[in-house]
Amino acid sequence: MQAVILAAGEGKRLRPLTRSRPKALIPVANVPIIDYVIRALLACGIRDITVVVGYRREQVIRHLNEEGFPVRVVVQNKPLGTAHALLQARENLSGRFLVLPGDNYVDSASIARVKDVPDAVLVKDHPYPSNFGVVEIRRGHVMRIVEKPEQAPGFTISTGIFSLDLDFFDYIRQPDLTDAVSAFLESGRKMRAVTAADWQDAIYPWDLLSMNRLLIPAASPEKAGEISAGAVVQGHVRIGAGTKVLPGCTIMGPAVIGAECEIGPQACIMPHTSIGNRVQVGPVSVVGNSIILDDAVVGPHSLVRDAVIGEGCRLDDHSSTVTASPLLEIEGEQVRGCFGAVTGEKARIGPFTTLRAAIVGNNVTIRGNRQVHGTDAIGDGSLVV
User: Fold this and answer.
1) Which of 32, 146, 283, 353 is the 20 to 30 A CA-CA neighbour of 121?
2) Alpha carbon separation from 25 to 67, 289, 297 (Å, rounded)
3) b/e for 86-119, b at 16 or more Cβ within 10 A?
4) What are the extents of the domains in the chain?
5) Mind listing the pLDDT tens digit for each residue in 307-331?
6) Domain 216-384 belongs to what architecture?
7) Is the pTM of this model over 0.90?
8) What CATH fold (topology level) applies to the domain 2-203?
9) How many beta carbons lie within 10 A of that of residue 333, not counting itself?
């Protein structure tokens, strides 16, 4: 069995997090999303894997090499759609194969269900089906896939994971994979619908928090750092090498903390929190249900909840995030999300600043004593005074 992982896309609706890295490399529970896909394939005994790269390709290739995954890489030179990306892998395929997005989480049980079924798609019920391709099914077979309909005919969606034969390439006439599937079905061919055991996608930045809650418990517990005798660590917690948990700290799992971090003193890490490498969480600060990427700083006396804090971002003392559900415009769509904050790479948030469901771009500077709301457009490089 062979597999093709499509990891060429940017993930524009996840900006500002994908300005400097592709969606497939965003870490969730401190592991890039694409790693979960590769590991699930390997767990099912599938080792003939081709990864199609495009946006920020050098970063993906470097990561795959560093991890030593047994994959080959092909390049999509222009972002011309998922079917076009799949075509780049055609020469590496010799029989039936799986095609999978590299920026969605899928477990090995789901792959095991679909891998031995010819001409099949992995499906899953979703509460917001209009963000995906909605699948109409009759007697276990796919009748059609309607891509991102305004009025969804049901709640069952395509995960973008297919089991296909080489003759599927005869139906690729448009850039996107859904169009090829439609041509395949219109020709009279049959496609089975197989229900996924576990699968998640992150369409918008706050969706990463749901994925994070799912995946943190899968991280093996470990306490490799220096934990002060006056600190309390409870539950399922992973702490990386070189990390210092200072006196008076409380860490409540499930939580993941990377290497070379400094937590506290008197700081509190609440459940469902992922903290990357070389992160500083200052004294008497609280972080909960959040993703803090590498090299970020959370200043003293701060409260960070329901937030995704970008790499190298600095929140000065007495910063706070407030969870709300504003109506936002993202890539021309009106969407409502529930979260505290999303900050881009190397943003600087001044002291006594409150972020209320705010999305803050990369390299933004916000001077102190400000309230920033989700309806405020804080683009890359902005200065807020």
Assistant:
1) 32
2) 12, 20, 21
3) bbbbeeebeebbbbbbbbbbbbbebbebbbeeeb
4) 2-203, 216-384
5) 999 999 999 999 999 999 988 888 7
6) 3 Solenoid (2.160)
7) yes
8) Spore Coat Polysaccharide Biosynthesis Protein SpsA; Chain A (3.90.550)
9) 13
